[in-house]
Amino acid sequence: MKCIMDDLTVYTPSPPAGQNALVVFPQARECPELPPSGYAPLRGSAPLGRVMLRDGRSAWAVTGHALARELLSDPRLSRDRSHPGFLAPEEWSAEVGTHGASPALVADPGDEAPHRPPLPYLTPRRTAALRPHLQRIADRLLTGMERQGPPADLVSAFALPMSALAIGTLLGVPYEDHDFFEGCSGRLLRGRTVREAATARAELERYTGQLLDRKRHEPGDGLLDDLMRQDGQGSLDRARLVTLPGTLLARGHETTADLVALAAFTLLRHPEHLAVLRAGKTPMTAVAEELLRCLATPNGILRVAVEDVEIAGRTIRSGECVVFVTALINRDATVFAEPETLDWDRPAGHHLAFGSGVHECLGRNLVRAQLEIALGSLFTRFPGLRLAVPAEEIRSKPANPTSDGLLELPVAW
Ligand code: HEM
């Protein structure tokens, strides 16, 4: 496996028979830490090019950082999934449903206005208060891994349960229910069939309804508790609270696990960068930010134009689909010098891994805290951590609508 970024500049895709050479979007990564090599031609058309979607339609592809920021704040580009021009999640990829989030869940209607998740409390302060809990979760999972002995799959033994439990803790799920919550979340997001996922969602909603009843008598300090207090003023209804865990898990469970696993893989592949981190010479906040930039795990952010938009010398017509290719946006050389290099010293905080504008990720502070704690704990607990198989055997997830990641990450220590 040649994992050098130069490959991107020389890659020339062969056009499908009878078609112009439009880059297909989305694609899976061959080299887990790099954008799919098939995106290379898009660099030539930066900041705005054309791609072919899996349903055969063509769409605009935003690859420049400044243009992405501008367009993500432009109300003429909408996230309305009911718009006929919007790409339905099941049309993202033929492979969706065989792995990764179920299309039914990705098409979660719960995050569109007026149904956007009510998360006024997901502030830096709340996240800071969660840090000791996140540390306990990481320590417990790593102890479990240690007891089982090497090798271990870091995705299933650490990254996935940690991110599910982090969301459970954020919501105020009691500790004794953690196993149920994590199991339900696993089936919800990685169920083999849409029916399995739907059953898990129904179970989760039933459980949340019971939890809300319990909390009415024994309030706690989770997000659900805060929202119930707010509900007392009549601003939220029970149905929204009951669906909130499913919505947050759809948004934040697998995405965060993908990032943590991919970050660990990247550090194991680059011992020189890991050594700096281990020497404690760089703040973990900087490490997390640079990994978020460089790994750019969201496969793409989607919009549909609801009016004509004249921009960058082109016209995006009303009804046309626009994809923001985060992996390339975060490697825009006009913004990030030597973008292919991992550089803990660069100010990377303005990457767009969390999007931008009104829909910027509401879980971003939680993700940052988790990434810092997960990596810090992992490499402290296992100073000799290494890949248990050759890097070439570690496979990326198929192209999917949520985020890029690894199928498995076998490690030993
Ligand atoms: C590595 C992990 C994550 C990444 C890369 C990520 C990325 C993103 C991106 C790119 C968006 C913007 C989508 C758009 O503009 O259409 C978004 C939105 C959102 N994210 Fe995340 N996310 C992550 C984890 C989380 C977590 C852990 C939570 C919650 C606990 C969360 C909750 C949300 C919500 C509620 C929105 C919708 C915001 C809105 O529309 O106002 N995310 N995320």
Q: Could you walk me through the main structural features you see in this protein, from its secondary elements to its overall organization?
A:
The chain has one domain (6-412): Orthogonal Bundle (Cytochrome p450). Helix content is 45%, strand content 9%. The chain contains 14 helices and 11 strands. It has helices at 6-10, 40-44, 65-72, 103-106, 124-148, 154-171, 178-190, 194-217, 223-231, 238-269, 271-278, 284-295, 326-329, 364-381, and strands at residues 23-25, 48-53, 58-62, 77-78, 152-153, 301-305, 309-311, 314-316, 321-324, 386-387, 410-412. A 6-stranded mixed sheet has the order 1-2-3-9-6-4. A 3-stranded antiparallel sheet has the order 5-11-10. The chain has a two-stranded antiparallel sheet with strand order 7-8. Bound molecules: protoporphyrin IX containing FE. Residues 79, 111, 116-117, 167, 248, 251-252, 255-256, 259, 297-298, 301, 353-355, 359, 361-363, 366-367, 403 line the site of protoporphyrin IX containing FE. Keywords: Heme, Iron, Metal-binding, Monooxygenase, Oxidoreductase. Belongs to the cytochrome P450 family. Residues 101-126 are annotated as: Disordered.
